[in-house]
Amino acid sequence: MRWTGPSRRSVATSRPSTRVLGYLESKKNLVGSACGLAGLALTVAGAAGAYWPVVIAGLYGAGALIAPPERASVPVFPGTAEQLGVVREDLARLREYAAEVELPPAAEGKLGGLLDLYGALLEPGWGTEALATEPDAVHALSRAIRLDVPECVDTYNRTRWWTRLTPGGESPERHLERQLSVLSEEAERLTAGLQDREARRQQTHTAYLEERGRS
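The structure assignment produced for this chain is given below.
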């Protein structure tokens, strides 16, 4: 016997019950109930007279109308520090993948140096503190680790397999080396940008201290 999940009828009937429970917990119902209780107190005190059901219902409705609307919860997204932790885990998986594939010596050296640079940037400390303030740098680093490097290695292996069947044409090894060189240059520019930002920060602080000393 195969279970195919909840039937459409059960899903349909669960939605109204969910809405009912949601309303019972809402501010409108709570304020309306408080006003209704006030009407009930008036009834007990004899102030509502024969129209006590109308008084209670009217006060409940008025309370529900004046109650502030429900405020939707603001979605919480992972912070930059959490994102860097995930990227660090992705780099560890990329290293495992790179260790399993067979690459030419020159490309293997370039890839090893590139992964080491990524690892240094993601090492907890000053590198990640600088990255945390640069969302574009985090995006570029994440894209390179998750997409660019795996694609370089995978397309190399695929192309090399076809080249063995039909020799000739441009060397897959050469393409791989060029791709890794481009990624290395990109990582070096990213690193240089972070270093330059820290240098400007130091210069700004020096200028501030000198200006404060003259005042």
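Interim note for the steering committee: The helical segments are 8-24, 27-45, 52-66, 80-100, 105-122, 126-131, 135-165, 172-214. The CA atoms of residues 10 and 194 lie 56 Å apart.
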